[in-house]
Specification:
elongated
Length: 44
């Protein structure tokens, strides 16, 4: 049986930053793998 799209996205695990382990607050159009804090450190 197929799962509804709403249930699929509701059951997805949280995205975790591989650098610091912090949970990333995703935007719908975002494909970032690191949190904003780690990204800003990289480009200082």
């Amino acid at each position: 049986m197929l799962q509804s799209p709403v249930e699929f996205f509701r059951n997805m695990p949280e995205k975790i930053c591989p650098e610091c382990g912090e949970c990333i607050e995703d935007q719908a159009e975002s494909y970032l793998l690191e949190c904003d804090r780690c990204l800003s450190k990289r480009y200082e």
